[in-house]
What does this fold into?
Amino acid sequence: MPSTQQRRRPKNLNLFTIRLPVNAIISIMHRMSGMVLFLILPAMLWALHQSVASEISYLALAGLLNHWLPKTVLVVLSWAFFHHFYAGLRHLAMDVHWMKSLPKARFSSRLVLCLDVLSVTLLAAMIW
It folds into this structure.
């Protein structure tokens, strides 16, 4: 049975008022980007199949991807890929006890975000 002090403790159930540290945000985004990559996998496999099936289907797929909307979708999906890649490397480095201190973990989180922005910007510049 909980004590009287535990019952009177204030509880904040509104998750939007909690300010998460950058490390937690990067970790949550890593999981979300992995889920997005997993869910988009059938469409990517279909596109790969279409690109190698015949020259006609390749040209049709290339024509489809020349429109601005699929390019925008590819840029968003590239963010998921790059973030999952860089955050995964960060998690691996932390697993081998690199960047264990809080300042180093914060720095590596910010570095992941900077690398995400840089990589997505370079890819967007290349496909447009």
